[in-house]
Haloacid dehalogenase-like hydrolase domain-containing protein 2 (Nitzschia inconspicua), 298 residues
Amino acid sequence: MTSPTIKAVLIDLSGTLHVGDQPIPGAREALQRLRQSGRRIRFLTNTSAKSTTQLLEQLNGPNLQFDISRDDLTTSVLATATYVKKHNLKPLCLMEDVSDMPADVQDIQPKNDALRATTVPSTTSFDSVVVGLAPTQFHYSQLNMAFRILLHHSNNLIAIHRANYVRDSSSSGELSLGPGAFVAALETSSGCDTAKVMGKPSREFFSSALWDDVPVEETCMIGDDILADIQGARAVGIGTTILVQTGKYLPGDESKSTSLASHEEEEDQLKMSGSSSDVFRLCPSVVEAVDFILSTYC
C-alpha cells in the first residue's frame, strides 16, 4: 500500500510561527526540519500593517530569524495592490498611514493627501473603499466617507481581510477587534454587495499560493484560524489541514463548522463527513504539526 504524500506545505505566519516579535517556542527548529525534508514551503499572511519589505525585515530580523525569502511569501496587501491596479481603482483606504511604506502598499493608494487633508475630501475623489486593520481610521468621519462612496459604487468594497479578531502583538497578548466588524458595518449600512476579500479565506488568495506542479491534494495548510486558514484551505481542495492551538485559537474552535457558507460544495462535504473534526487535525503548535507531517507522510 502506497503511503499518503505531502509534497508542499502552506504556513500561516502570525499566531502560527510567531506572535509579534516572539517566535512560537520551537518554531524555528520545526521549520528547519520541514525544510530539510525537501518539501516546498510557502508562507501566507493577512497582515495589513506592514508592506512585504517591512514584513520580511521582521521575519528575518534578530528576534524571529525565520530566513524567509520574498518568493516564498504570499500577502493580502500585495493581492489588494494587484487588484486595485488591475481594475484602475481610486480607493479610499481605511488603513494605517501608508505614506512611509514601500511600493506594494503605496500601490493601493499612491497619494494619501486626501486622507491627511484638514477638510473632508469629496467622495467624487474615490470610486472604491479598501479596508484593512486600521485602528486610527475606524472613526465616524472616515467610516461615513466610506459609506457615502459605497452608495455610488456598491460593487467596490474591498477587504484586505475580514477577521473578526486578531491576537494583540503587545505584551498583554489579548485578542483585539479585527476589521471584519467594520467591513460588515459598511456592507449593512450602504446596502452594497458583499465585500471582495483579498486575503484568506478567499479562493483566489489560496489558489495564487499553490504550486502548478504539486497536486492540491498533496498540499497541507497549517494555521491558527479556523475560518481563514482551515476553511479557506478546504474550499480549494487542499488535502490536509492542521489547526494549531496558538495565536488567535480559542478553546472550542475545533468544534465550529468547517464549511464556508459561500461554498455549497464544502457544506455538502461537511455533511457527508458528519463532523468538522473529521476534516482537519488539531495540534498544540506548529512543532507538533510538523512532527505529524514528517511522521505520517512520505
About this structure: The domain at 8-46+200-296 is CATH 3.40.50.1000 (Rossmann fold). The chain has two domains: 8-46+200-296, 87-197. The first helix runs from residue 27 to 36.
